[in-house]
Amino acid sequence: MDISAEVAKLQAAYDTAIWHRDEAKKQLAREIREQQITKWELDHQKSRSKDYLKLKEGCRHCLPGWTFMNSVCFYFAFSDAFSPRSWQEARQFCINQAGDLAVIYSREKHLAISKLITKHELGSPRTPNGYWIGLRDIKEEGIWKWLDGTRLTTGYCIGEGWRRIDDRDCAAMYPRSSPFEIWYQAPCHHILKWICQMTTRSAG
């Protein structure tokens, strides 16, 4: 009888310990979930703060609808209110806004622009758009120049590089997983979206 009573006590103590262990696990899981939610909320607030600062900075330097990046104002024809256009038509739109098609000299500027259009296009259910930039080889086949006359030295062309193709005289950016294979030679009459740029208000 004494042995049976002792076994019962031990079993009860074991069951109690198991219950406390399980309760501790549940409590730990709740605290981890709460910490994760707090982290998400903090990250969200940080993101909103950054977006607000960017918007505030953009409003100070750029016209409404333009994005301030790398000390330059850019306009991305994301809105479906704008129909895709040929390279020349897209350029005329930019000129009408006191700007021109984007000239992308630096790696930093290229990466910032490619990240933005890739995020926008690949996050959409529709077929990704290409975007005209201010680069072409109209005057001399195979000699690519920016709109300010500067010759292209470093590019991020899709596929085999800047081949000599008679009817592909204008350049566009396409959203891709690799930002270093995002430019494409296209006939200037193709219908695409576009990217404008202009100097900031303080610089202009």
From TrEMBL:
Residues 69-197 form the C-type lectin domain. PROSITE patterns: C_TYPE_LECTIN_2. It comes from the Eukaryota. InterPro entries: C-type_lectin-like, C-type_lectin-like/link_sf, C-type_lectin/snaclec_domain, CTDL_fold. This is C-type lectin domain-containing protein. It comes from Dissostichus mawsoni (Antarctic cod).
